[in-house]
Each structure stands twice: as structure tokens, then as C-alpha cells.
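Exercise: predict the fold of this chain.
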Amino acid sequence: MNATSNSPSSYYPRHIFFCLNERKAGEACCAQHHAQEGFDHCKKRVKEAGLSGPGQVRVNKAGCLDRCAAGPVAVVYPEGVWYTYVDNGDIDEIVDSHLKNGKVVERLLVPAHLGR
């Protein structure tokens, strides 16, 4: 079955979730690291690249993903690949390499041991 099949399980074959959580009392959180701007930029770039819509990529907001120590974070499913990013250039690389071509951006991976 290909990624554009009409199967209910492939409506969006790939999702990228951005943690936009904001914690109280100054606790570490993705919102402190401009996560909303990263989400907005990714959504724009996915659309510009012609990757948005059914059968392609869905850019999603998420609450806490419990990887605060690596913030800001985003995770791509179905692969379960966790990314951190610093600027729009990093987001562009994730879109062009992973979301468009299926190639993981190794330099932006969140170390497996980093959690909350």
C-alpha cells in the first residue's frame, strides 16, 4: 500500500507534532524556546513544498511531549523520530530532508536519554 492510498490509516501518512507547552513558575518548557514560531514556520514550509493535505504531511500542535530538557522539540510519526531545533533553517532542513524525502536529519536528533 502506498502513502497516497485511500485507507483510513493513511489519510496522513506522516505527522510532525510540535510541543507548544508552557509551564508555570519558570519551569523549562518548549514555549520558552519559540516553539510557536517553529510550528508556524513548519506549517508554511510544508504548504510551500506541496506536502500538505490528505495523503501527505500533517503539521500538528501538541501539549507537553515530556522531553523538556531538549526543548524545543518536535516528533515525526510514524517513524517516532525526535528533533530539536534552533531556528527556521533547522525547520527547513527537517521539512526538506525528512518530511519530503524520508531522510532523518541526524544532527538535530534529541539524545535518547533526554526527558523532562
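Check your answer against the key: The first helix runs from residue 35 to 48.
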